[in-house]
Design a protein that fits this description.
Elements lengths: L1 H16 L10 E3 L9 E3 L9 E4 L5 E5 L3 E6 L7 E7 L4 H9 L11 E6 L4 E6 L6 E6 L10 E2 L13 E5 L2 E7 L7 E6 L21 E8 L4 E9 L10 E9 L17 E5 L11 E8 L11 E7 L9 E7 H8 L3 E5 L4 E4 L18 H9 L2 E6 L8 E3 L4 E10 L5 E9 L3 E8 L2 E9 L9 E5 L4 E5 L4 E5 L9 H7 L4 E4 L4 E4 L16 H16 L13 E5 L3 E5 L9 E5 L10 E3 L5 E4 L6 E9 L2 E12 L9 E3 L8 H6 L19 H5 L19 E5 L20 H36 L6 H21 L4 H5 L13 H4 L11
Parallel strand pairs: 1-28, 17-23, 34-40
Antiparallel strand pairs: 2-31, 3-4, 4-5, 5-6, 7-8, 8-9, 9-10, 11-12, 12-13, 14-15, 15-16, 16-17, 18-19, 19-20, 20-24, 21-22, 21-23, 25-26, 26-27, 27-28, 29-30, 30-31, 32-33, 35-38, 35-42, 36-39, 37-38, 39-40, 41-42
The structure holds 2-acetamido-2-deoxy-beta-D-glucopyranose (6 copies).
């Protein structure tokens, strides 16, 4: 009773504290079908639910378990995936009829392939649900023919296609975790296909060995000669909470052959422990969703093997969120070699064992131990301690993305340091590529791999080929792990902080770091453009001379003719989703009385003699600044009174201005306190691309300087719906806001101060927010740069900062912007 109320209080308190999660935004986003990340697709009208993937050793053949079929796909070619062979394996009409007579939906009766593993050099072992009557078979991996009559699949494959299972073949023996009955309430971890003196083994029916588990994955660690299983189940040791779910790791030894009298044909080496994905004093992310094994770095001990898992929470305060935690093998081993809990059979309560230790549960080689020892092992299988994540904290956590699958890779950066790169699939169909920095996780990019949510998915990484396969209900998609050529300036290449990519000075291109002999410029940890690119670019400056582009030769920028008293809105594109837009005027300040900074980065003001002139839109990211657009606002020669009008540029000149606007809606920083326009994911991801696919008809999204006239007879409600209101209303709004704010602050200040202190303390200790670094750095740098800007008036500083982009055709001033091919810097296409 008491524990219960304490717990509820803790849950409530922690639930309140958890919103201080760091926001992790992918730096660039590639919407579905954009050419910047080329997806190769395989789909066929008669192939669906392609969800079990198995890659051949040489990476040239991808075996796919689908609905009623096993496929062998030829993935050795760069641009296409072709079908090499197909095995049709479907239940007969009679089987289907029986299945539906048992009350099952016809759609669930086909044979969904759920086990697909290499058995030996010539054969694959496959199991399917087969109309709720699972079967297994041997398949020749060359010809894809079934060699032997199908086996009974009970205990190897679930009956119900919606139940998760795991299977792994080691030395010709199949280790599985699945439910072994039609109703789905007899979960079992078992071994099959054992021969000779080795016998098939399964779990004893002892109370509590498994409690309604959901199997996630299994991993074989050769040096340990153990197979580890990962699953979630009901945590009966927490009997004060109803159905508290815990994530588990369990182990069995390959050498196990069962006991001689006690535990005959049963595991003698089974042990399980809780996996805790939890930062100190926070609600745990208790439900494991997926886990992948990262083998130790070359030369390191097996104990350094890491397991990266995705976890979600069973509580609604954390719904929609997910966290990644990593666990070290040595930590798992030490938990298994520690103390065990024991179940009191009368009260059904778990407690820490007090009686003397007769054997070491989980130890390999117990099969011919004494009956006494085996009875002890049978009762003591739940480790007392929990396995805590590496660093006792979350590897990363996301408040806005629910991840379902992951795969992990170690990548050697240019400085020979190794970085861990995670590929995370979101429920909504995006693949996030995330690098783990000392300061926390940084999401390099996101690629949309499918449009509609997919009920079943799988991921397979091929490290040697540098590709990832995503299996969904609709087919298989392949995408490269990196495409460095997308970053076409040194600055973009460095800001990406992608350990796969580095700037090659010789070829002046962003290249795959592992493919080049020469050293490349890269700064994964800090992403410092000036240091990293300057060292590389000096020769360029020396060659072309920094003063080549003089202020005098600067163009005046995009001309914006206005009538006095019109409301002008200038658009500013974002260089990336992590950049912050900033407006400047030569020789004058943008006072907040006259200028309104809108949420999408655009600037709005009323045209008066004082506000005519040049405007410069800068984008700042991680302390690096580049000019995105230059406007020259000038009074029209013959003023025409206009009502709400949109100034749209002719489509024939896809230059600066076209790009300048194409990215509206992607801004994330509100400089003023105007209500931010409603921001949806679609807006976030769709912008841009028109400008980059130049051969297509440019979607007329072009220049969009909206002009409003605030003449006497004008009516404020005439503004375009959805646009923020112009500055005419600004002062009133401000006044109200101030009054309300003051009242609010008075009322809540005491409470907030106390809570904020607590929250800050806690947030600081957490996964460090990488997004904070840029703004801190930019704050430090910006005044200097502004000074420089003012001095140079016409911004030739850019030629110094990113000389590579100076290769742009035409003027030096918009070089950083247009580049050689008129593309928006770093905008996904
Ligand atoms: C890589 O990016 C370039 C430039 O954006 C694009 O042309 C190319 O198709 C991409 N390649 C792949 C394999 O995605
Ligand atoms: C692989 O296993 C199958 C089935 O047991 C067997 O028929 C085949 O001969 C084996 N192949 C090799 C190369 O051992
Ligand atoms: C198979 O795919 C379809 C969508 O194509 C989906 O509705 C269904 O749930 C999937 N079945 C299973 C068993 O995953
Ligand atoms: C213990 O088991 C091994 C097989 O794993 C066997 O070779 C050995 O003889 C057994 N020892 C005893 C004392 O039975
Ligand atoms: C300009 O903006 C208006 C609304 O602000 C929008 O309806 C119109 O489509 C935009 N024009 C272009 C070319 O983007
Ligand atoms: C403003 O315009 C709306 C329609 O656009 C109209 O209903 C309203 O009466 C106008 N108000 C004034 C003061 O002109």
């Amino acid at each position: 009773m008491e524990t219960h109320s304490v717990l509820s209080f803790t849950v409530a308190l922690l639930g309140f504290l958890s919103p201080c999660l760091t926001r992790l935004t992918p730096r660039v986003s590639f919407p579905f079908g954009s050419p910047g990340r080329h997806l190769t697709r395989f789909s066929s009208y008669d192939v669906s639910n392609t969800t079990t993937l198995l890659l051949s050793e040489d990476g040239d053949v991808l075996y796919v378990g689908a609905r009623d079929a096993v496929l062998a796909l030829d993935v050795g070619h760069k641009d296409v995936i072709t079908l090499r062979n197909k095995l049709d394996w479907r239940p007969s009409d009679k089987d289907l009829e029986q299945c539906s007579m048992k009350g099952k939906e016809m759609a669930d009766c086909p044979n969904f392939i759920r086990v697909l593993q290499f058995l030996n050099a010539s054969h694959i072992y496959a199991c399917g649900t087969f109309a709720f009557s699972p079967r297994c078979t041997y398949v020749n991996s060359e010809t894809l023919t079934m060699s032997i009559r199908p086996d009974e699949g009970r205990g190897r494959c679930p009956y119900d296609p919606y139940q998760r299972n795991t299977a792994i073949i080691v030395d010709g023996e199949l280790y599985t975790g699945t439910v072994a009955d039609y109703r789905g309430n007899r979960p079992v971890i078992s071994r099959h296909l054992s021969e000779g003196r080795r016998v098939d083994l399964k779990l004893d029916d002892t109370l509590g060995w498994l409690e309604d588990p959901t199997f996630i994955s299994s991993s074989f660690i050769p040096d340990e000669e153990k197979v580890y299983f990962f699953f979630s189940e009901v945590g009966r040791e927490y009997d004060f909470i109803d159905k508290f779910i815990v994530s588990r790791v369990s182990q069995i030894c390959m050498s196990d052959v069962g006991g001689q009298r006690t535990l005959q044909r049963r595991w003698t080496t089974f042990a399980k422990a809780q996996l805790l994905c939890q930062a100190d004093n926070e609600l745990p992310y208790n439900v494991i969703q997926d886990i992948d094994t990262l083998p130790p770095a070359e030369g390191a001990s097996t104990d350094e093997t890491l397991f990266y898992g995705i976890f979600t929470s069973q509580w609604s305060v954390n719904s929609g969120r997910s966290a990644v935690c990593s666990f070290r093998l040595s930590d798992i081993k030490s938990v298994f070699s520690g103390n065990y809990k024991v179940l009191n059979r009368d009260t059904l309560q778990w407690s820490t064992r007090v009686q003397e230790k007769v054997a070491n549960p989980g130890e390999c080689g117990l099969h011919n131990a004494s009956d006494n020892a085996l009875r002890f092992v049978k009762e003591n299988f739940l480790a007392d301690d929990s396995v805590r994540p590496v660093g006792r904290s979350l590897t990363m956590a996301s408040a806005e993305h629910k991840y379902s699958h992951l795969t992990v890779q170690r990548v050697q950066a240019a400085n020979n340091r190794e970085y861990t790169v995670l590929f995370l699939l979101t429920e909504t169909g995006y693949l996030h590529k995330s690098v783990l920095l000392q300061s926390g996780a940084h999401i390099i990019e996101e690629v949309q791999v499918f449009e509609r949510p997919q009920p079943v998915k799988s991921l397979k990484l091929s490290v040697p080929k540098g590709v990832i396969y995503v299996g969904t209900s609709e087919g298989v998609v392949r995408l490269p792990t990196a495409n460095c050529s997308f970053y076409w300036t040194c600055a973009q290449c460095v800001l990406a902080r992608d350990p796969f990519c580095g700037w090659d000075t010789a070829s002046r291109a962003c290249v795959e770091a592992s493919n080049t002999q020469t050293s490349v410029a890269q700064d994964i940890e800090r992403g410092n453009v000036e240091e990293t690119c300057n060292t590389v670019t000096l020769t360029h400056i020396a060659r072309f001379g920094p003063n080549k582009m003089s202020a005098a030769s600067c163009p005046t920028g995009e001309l914006v003719p206005v009538a006095l008293n019109e409301v002008v809105r200038l658009q500013c594109p974002a260089a990336s989703k992590l950049s912050r837009q900033l407006w400047e005027r030569p020789n004058s300040r943008l006072s907040s009385d006259l200028y309104l900074h809108l949420g999408d980065g655009s600037l709005s003001f009323v045209a008066t003699p004082a506000t005519l002139g040049h405007y410069l839109c800068l984008s700042t990211e991680n302390g690096y600044q580049q000019t995105m657009a230059i406007y020259h606002v000038r009074q029209k020669s013959s003023p025409v009174v206009q009502t709400t009008s949109s100034y749209t540029r002719p489509r024939t000149r896809p230059t600066l201005a076209t790009q300048a606007v194409s990215r509206s809606g992607s801004g994330q920083h509100t400089t003023g306190f105007w209500p931010e326009p409603k921001e949806t994911r679609r807006q976030d991801t769709e912008p841009t691309q028109s400008t980059r696919d130049t051969q297509g008809v440019p979607r007329q999204r072009g220049k969009n300087v909206t002009l409003w006239t605030l003449g006497s007879g004008q009516n404020e409600s005439g503004f375009v719906e959805g646009e923020p209101l112009p500055s005419a209303r600004y002062p009133c709004y401000l006044k109200e806001l101030v009054v309300v704010s003051v009242l609010l602050v008075l009322c809540l200040s005491l409470l907030i101060t106390v809570l904020m202190y607590v929250i800050r303390q806690r947030c600081r200790r957490r996964t460090a927010p990488h997004a904070v670094t840029p703004s801190r750095e930019s704050d430090r740098r910006t005044p200097l740069e502004q000074e420089a800007l003012r001095r140079n008036q016409c911004l030739n500083k850019r030629t110094g900062l990113s000389p590579h982009s100076g290769q742009a055709g035409g003027s030096g001033c918009n070089g950083a912007l247009t580049g050689s091919n008129g593309h928006l810097p770093n905008t996904p296409i």
